[in-house]
Amino acid sequence: MSMLDSWVDEVGLIGGNGSAVNRFAWTPELLAACEWLVERLRELGLNAEIDAAGNVIGRWDVDGADAGTAVLIGSHLDTVPDGGRFDGALGVLSGLEAIRRLKAEGFGPCRPLWIAAFNDEEGARFGTSMFGSTAFVGDDLTALRDRVGVDGVPLAEAMRQRGFDFDEVPRAKGIDGVGCYLELHIEQGPRMEAQSLDTAVVTAIVGIGGYRVTLRGQTNHAGTTPMGERRDALTGASRVVLALRDAALASGDVTANVGRIEVRPGGTNVIPGEAVFFVDIRTANPNIFPTLGNLVRDTVRTAATAEGLTAEIAVTYEHQPVPMDSELQELLGREMEAQGLAWASLSSGAGHDAQVLAPHVPTGMLFVPSQAGISHAPEEFTPPGQREPGVSVLTSVLKTLLLS
Ligand code: GLV
Ligand code: MN
Ligand code: MN
Ligand code: MN
């Protein structure tokens, strides 16, 4: 078994049971995975630490005043609820393997090589998403101070429980030392397998809007309240789910999802007086993206009016659609060609830390396939033989970048 494959198995057991993995921001499970990575990086001779935002940052620095800015590689180690072993982790571990190979062959970089495992890319606990990379690029996160986790623990308190301080998060800014960013990731969709591709160059990353919607009606008796006189919050939520699904289907360029819903008070013989649900809506089209907020708001208002409900809408996350750097796309494509791989250029329907980095430094991504196109699920899998081409391309491209 290769080093990469044994690392995938080992990390998959941290917060995992061999298939489903649960590693959320500021939990012992995620921090254990981060500490595992710090140890591996130190064994390879890098300076490694967990920064003030919970990112693992490893630095292979080079001597000399003219060393220049770093090539940064990375991804994330946190997961969605009952997530897979590959989303994020394969990118981090492929980066670790690339560094191991460069060290093993005595490669001497002309500029620094850094690696990051960004904290809380998924936002599973606090609904924040891309917390760590946002801190790394120096963007303001103070608005998140009062966010409360799905477990009822406020973000600042969750950090304090692990020895971190929310006020120190700005110290995690590290972008000024970075010259470019590269992220390897699983595709998380079916296109590569359908086309029998080994690897893909990412052209652009989808824009993502996240909204928390609260609908309120009247809690009442399930059996005595006439059907025509109900103010049922879940019926309103159902209208929103279907209307957004239909709008997305009609557009062809949009995806819409409601993956989390809480209905109160939650009795089988009680009309739900309140429904809180989370909309995730996406498009790669930069002309459509600015219209999605109004689509959500109009859809919610229409449903609320139809069911006699009140509505509140809050933005929980927003990530702009971004193109990947054209020179890095060319470099990746040339290397895939040189290695004789079956490859193509594809856009990403998943969000990535790369879209947070892209407005700041030239950023590129490459994909390896996802078996049966399944992701954000325990069945997520990329067979060992399909991991290697990605690592090989990443390692070669790093050599080119580190010598320039
Ligand atoms: C990240 O995994 C996302 O696309 O939600
Ligand atoms: Mn994910
Ligand atoms: Mn991911
Ligand atoms: Mn910025």
Please tell me about this protein's structure.
A hairpin with a 5-residue loop joins β1 (47-50) and β2. The radius of gyration is 22 Å and the shape is globular. It has helices at 3-12, 28-43, 89-104, 131-136, 155-161, 191-194, 233-251, 292-307, 326-338, 354-357, 384-402; strands spanning 47-50, 56-60, 70-76, 113-118, 178-186, 199-205, 207-216, 220-221, 254-264, 270-271, 274-283, 310-319, 322-323, 343-348, 363-368. The chain is 32% helix and 24% strand. By secondary structure, it is of the alpha/beta class. It folds into 2 domains: 3-206 and 321-402, Zn peptidases (Aminopeptidase); 207-319, 2-Layer Sandwich (Alpha-Beta Plaits). The structure holds glyoxylic acid and manganese (II) ion (3 copies). One manganese (II) ion is lined by residues 76, 87-88, 121, 185, 352. Its cofactor is Mn(2+). Keywords: Hydrolase, Manganese, Metal-binding. Belongs to the peptidase M20 family.
